[in-house]
Write a structure and sequence with these properties.
The complex is a heterodimer of chains A (81) and B (144). In chain A, 22% of the residues lie in helices and 27% in strands. By secondary structure, chain A is α+β, with helices and mostly antiparallel strands. Chain A has a single domain, classed as Beta-grasp domain (Ubiquitin-like (UB roll), Roll). A 5-stranded mixed sheet of chain A has the order 2-1-5-3-4. With 144 residues, chain B is α+β, with helices and mostly antiparallel strands. Chain B has a single domain, classed as Alpha-Beta Complex (Aldehyde Oxidoreductase, domain 3). The chains are: A alpha+beta (81), B alpha+beta (144). Chains A and B meet through helix 1 of A and strand 4, helix 2, helix 3 and strand 8 of B.
């Protein structure tokens, strides 16, 4: 299956991409996606502890199951205001 | 009363208009918080800031924040406006206004709203320094 990954702020700078489509096996979890993203962009490992993932606009835990067409956000620590 | 929907925008924020939008004859107290771009950060001169946002998620989050605030305090009206894109020193980045029957809950509700915006809205800012160079501001990891 394919999911759409969006990168923001420092993660976008490191990945050198705003978004990309990532292929995963059916039944894959967010954790599987995180591993695939880390393989595609090894430099992102520097942010590994602080980055969070959203699935379809909601913060999700690593065990969350992904589906075809899901939108996953790669979110560094936030600093609005 | 002019209407200010809670929103995320690239346009200049008129804080007076945000305050006016929460006026209501049943409210005895209104509190306005205005966040502006300051001239110094860690002793370095700041030229401006660039805000980035995950827009759809931030809009959804702002609605949730309004819901949380209204569950905790008897809010009559509230408005939250956050700007993104390139901002210069002195410009308004965020404005939050809350009106309640009494002042104590208006202060508390407004404080909670701006703190929750800062800690949970998917937004990021990059400082651009007067002497050249730029850096992403260290933020708060989102809670899962």
């Amino acid at each position: 299956m394919m999911v759409k990954v969006l990168y923001f702020a420092a993660a976008k700078d490191i990945a050198k991409a705003r978004d990309e489509r990532v292929s995963l096996r059916d039944g894959a979890t967010l954790e599987d996606l995180a591993s695939e993203v880390a393989r595609l962009h090894p430099q992102l490992s520097s942010m590994k502890r602080s980055v969070r993932f959203s699935v379809n606009l909601e913060i999700a835990s690593p065990s969350a199951k992904l589906s075809e067409g899901d939108e996953v956000g790669v979110l560094p620590p936030v600093a609005g205001g | 009363m002019r209407k200010t929907a809670t929103k995320i925008t690239t346009s200049r924020i008129d804080s007076g208009q945000v305050l006016a939008s929460v006026e209501d004859r049943s409210a005895g107290g209104s509190v306005l918080f205005v966040g502006t771009i300051r001239t110094k950060s860690d002793g370095k001169r700041v030229k401006g800031l660039t805000y980035e946002v995950y827009r759809e998620m931030a809009e959804k989050r702002m609605k949730e924040i309004e819901g949380e605030v209204r569950r905790k305090w008897p809010v009559v009206r509230m408005a939250m406006v956050h700007r993104y894109g390139d901002l210069k020193v002195g410009e308004v980045s965020v404005a939050v206004a809350v009106s309640c029957e009494h002042r104590a809950e208006a202060f508390e509700a407004c404080r909670f709203a701006i703190d929750t915006i800062k800690g949970t809205l998917p937004m990021w800012k990059k400082e651009k320094f007067g002497g050249g160079g730029e850096k992403w501001v260290r933020g708060t990891p989102l809670e899962t």
